[in-house]
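User: Just a sanity check before I run the rest of the batch. Below are the C-alpha cells for the first item. I only need the designed sequence back.
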C-alpha cells in the first residue's frame, strides 16, 4: 500500500507499528484514506509526529479504540437500502431456499454491530425458514461484535425499519431502545474474522458484504471477491453495497441478477 512514489517514511513506520502493536494490517486499505484519517487525529490531539501519536494511543485505551474505529468505520442500520431487502425477501431468499430444502447458510462479512445479519434473520423468520437456516456474522472489530451480541439498539438503527417489523421482532426496553427477539437472535452466530487474512467457510448460499470494500485497494478487492466466489456454492448469491458494483464480474464467474446481486455461474 505504501509503494507510492514518495511515501512518507514516518508514516510507513507508523503503519508497520499499527500492524505489530494493534494487530491491524492496513496494507490492503486505500493508502490516501488511511493517511487522511490518521492525520485528522494527529491534528485533533495536536500531536507533532507519528511517533508521538503511537505513544499516545499505546498509553490510552480510549484513544487506541478511537483510532481503530476511525480506520474501520462501523456505520450501519437495519434494512439499509430497503428496496434491496424487499428483493431478497420476495425473490432471492425464496429462490435459494427452494434449491436447498430451505436450509440456507448465509454469511454477513463486515457485519458491524449486527443490524445487517439480524435483518437477514428477520427475513428468514418471515419466510418460515427451518431452524437450521442461519447466518454467520463476522467483523474484524471486537467492540462492534460485543454490541451485536447484546442485540440492543436505539432508534438510530431503525430509520429503514417498518413499525410492523419493529413490533413483531423487537422487544421495547425503554422509550427509544429495543432488543431483538430470541427467534431472530438464535439464527445469528457472531465471530471475529478478518476477511483479508482468515480462511472462509465453503458452500455458502449467500454472502452479504456491503460498505466494506470501499476501503480496500482495487487489487485487494478483486482477490477478496475471488475468495467470496470460491466460498459460494454454484447458484449462490453475492450481495454488495449500493456503491460497490463489480465491473469484472464475468471473469469472476459471476452473473448479474439485478444491480448489486451477483450469482455464481455453473449448473445448479
Ligand atoms: C461501514 S460498516 C458496514 C456494515 C454493514 N455491512 C452495512 O453495510 O451496514 C464496515 C464494517 O467492516 C468492518 N471491516 C473493515 N475491515 C474489515 C476486515 N478486513 N475484515 C472484516 N471486517 C472488516 C468494520 O469493522 C466495519 O464494522
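Assistant: Here's the designed sequence for the first item:
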Amino acid at each position: 500500500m505504501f509503494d507510492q512514489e514518495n511515501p512518507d517514511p514516518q508514516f510507513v513506520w507508523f503503519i508497520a507499528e499499527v500492524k505489530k502493536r494493534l494487530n491491524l494490517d492496513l496494507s490492503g486499505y486505500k493508502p490516501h484514506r488511511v493517511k487522511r484519517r490518521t492525520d485528522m487525529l494527529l491534528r485533533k490531539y495536536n500531536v507533532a509526529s507519528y511517533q508521538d501519536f503511537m505513544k499516545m494511543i499505546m498509553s490510552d485505551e480510549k484513544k487506541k479504540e478511537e483510532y481503530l474505529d476511525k480506520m474501520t468505520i462501523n456505520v450501519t442500520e437495519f434494512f439499509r437500502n430497503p428496496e434491496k431487502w424487499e428483493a431478497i425477501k420476495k425473490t432471492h431468499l425464496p429462490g435459494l431456499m427452494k434449491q436447498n430444502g430451505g436450509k440456507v447458510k448465509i454469511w454477513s462479512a463486515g457485519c458491524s454491530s449486527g443490524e445487517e445479519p439480524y435483518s437477514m434473520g428477520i427475513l428468514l423468520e418471515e419466510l418460515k425458514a427451518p431452524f437450521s437456516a442461519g447466518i454467520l456474522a463476522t467483523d474484524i472489530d471486537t467492540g462492534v461484535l460485543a454490541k451485536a451480541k447484546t442485540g440492543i439498539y436505539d432508534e438510530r438503527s431503525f430509520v429503514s425499519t417498518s413499525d410492523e417489523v419493529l413490533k413483531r421482532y423487537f422487544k421495547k426496553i425503554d422509550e427509544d431502545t429495543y432488543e431483538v427477539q430470541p427467534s431472530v437472535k438464535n439464527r445469528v452466530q457472531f465471530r471475529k474474522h478478518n476477511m483479508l487474512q482468515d480462511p472462509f467457510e465453503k458452500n455458502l448460499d449467500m454472502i452479504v458484504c456491503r460498505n466494506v470494500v470501499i476501503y480496500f485497494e482495487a487489487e485487494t478487492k478483486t482477490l477478496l471477491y475471488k475468495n467470496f466466489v470460491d466460498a459460494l456454492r454454484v447458484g449462490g448469491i453475492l450481495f454488495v453495497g449500493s456503491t460497490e458494483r463489480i465491473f469484472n464480474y464475468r471473469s469472476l464467474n459471476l452473473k448479474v441478477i439485478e444491480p448489486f446481486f451477483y450469482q455464481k455461474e455453473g449448473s445448479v
